[in-house]
Input
Amino acid sequence: MLKDKETPLYEMPSTTSRKLAILAAGDTVRVLQNRGLWIQLASRDQRKGWIYLGKNPELNRNPKRPATLWTPEPLPPGGISFHLGAFSSAFTYVGKISYRNLPRMDIETTLQYATSKVASFYLLYGNVRYLRPLKPRYDGWLTAGAGVINTVPLSAANNDARSNMVINYGLGVQRHLRGNNWLRADLRQFNAFANQGLVNFVEFTVGITIGVDWSKI
Output
């Protein structure tokens, strides 16, 4: 990711060659090769060009610190995740299956069980995640989805199970481990549409994702 405020992208490794674009801080690039103070890279829109890390007379200013570049970790095309954590006052076990259909978007299906002193909860829901690289080996995301929550009271006086629609939204972060594995943490808000009104739950879980290329299965 580029850290410099503005970085010209040249067609050739020369400041007199045609300027293709001005890259800004935060732009994600893919490094192709190094040639002295010149670096060839590909921008997010797949334009290939060169940036110069030395003093550039075209910018008419003193050179800043060289742009810090890093290549985001490749995301798995899909995977299986296992989580443990808290679901409001309950302890929860979570299993997820994901499929990445766009470079920074994936779809997750979740089967979840939570248990407390008063009830057990069974959840099935789907989510869309938008992922964004944060720093080397780290990605963050925003997510939203909907599904069903089934509540089973543990009291003998009230043993009627109830099923309700539930929506969830939240954010998370993941860290790339060895191979195609990731360590991740999720924080989500759940809103269940029960007969007595809206019931809210807050969830925090940590888990591991094992990358799976579903196209090869």
In short: The longest strand covers residues 119-135. The chain has two domains: 6-59, 78-216. DSSP finds no helices and 13 strands in the chain. The CA atoms of residues 4 and 67 lie 5 Å apart.
